[in-house]
Design a protein that fits this description.
The chain is built from 15 helices and 14 strands. By secondary structure, the protein is α/β, with parallel strands linked by helices.
Length: 385
Amino acid sequence: MDRRSILTGAGVAGLASALPAAVLAQSAAQGNAVSESRAPSGPEPGARHRIRFGVIGLDHAHIYSMTDAMIRGGGTPVAFFSAEPAQVNLFRTRYGDGVRLARSAEEILGDASIQLIVAAPVPDQRAALGIQAMQAGKDYLGDKPAITSLAQLAQVRGAIRETGRKFAILYSERLEVRSAVHAGRLVEQGRIGKVIQTVNLAPHRVSPGTRPDWFWDKARYGGILTDIGSHQAEQFLFYTRSTRAEVVAAQTGNLHWPDKPGFEDFGDMTLTGNGGTGYVRVDWFTPDGLPAWGDGRLFILGTDGYIELRKYVDVAGRPGRDHLFVSDRKGVEYIDCSHVHLPFGAQFVTDIVERSSVAQDQEQALLAAELVLKAQARATRPILA
């Protein structure tokens, strides 16, 4: 179920038969939609390996797109756990009774046949679960933000060294967005020369009626830069090919929700690395009139050209999502990326089996987390706050 289908009403009959209304409403408002109208029936043709995985923690609707990605990549979900009956019912509605409901998270962690844990619990619980998974001899794929404090980050790095397992983070705004995948290919081909800066604008819609209590609690979600900003920090590192980076400046604020003192609705940060620089703005100010959960935009500046992505909507322009514009020495071009293949699932399953690092570089994933945690910690308040 892509965001375009939800918002334009395309395939309503299929969507209604695949997922309950609660998931459809949350997905449309928040941008957490699963990738197709129905769960994948099995691995995609290019998937080389097969693994068994368990799912723990269904608190964020990203868990559906994460599970779908692993199925497409060659994974079979064999067990899941949630203590919330509503979450259990939603998961069963999508994936059927063939995925066993475990009696506890420990039951899944103790199953020697399971190679991977996929998880989207409340953000402040994700790092501890990942450490448990690695100590149980399994790899881990957590929703972002997978780490909400520098203390957790140190513990995760220690567990990786001790166990040799993977602690992956699904930064979906690059890994599961088709235009972002294609932009990476263009950068790799040298289409715009050497990348020297990225600019990310990442507005989101609040939709307060669909949000759980932890959404408003900074101690639980880590702050706006830690949460949303983690996507953008990872993109900055990836496109600039930076292996070292620092936070130059950062600010966060609550500009519109005085009755929610633990909430941040605005943040920005400036980053610099050994491959380039980056600017990030994140916010919760998507207007209700926009036909998408957010007008996510990415600008990649190179020495010989630049790329702009309109990931989710082309305002008053072309329909749908995944719009890419490139300008280089030869001219300008528009590229419709709506049918670009998403390689992460199959690549990550291969990484698990072959112990490679094609889908995600471990150090880069953790460096992105480190950057936003440091930015969050040093952020000042906007003057107008």
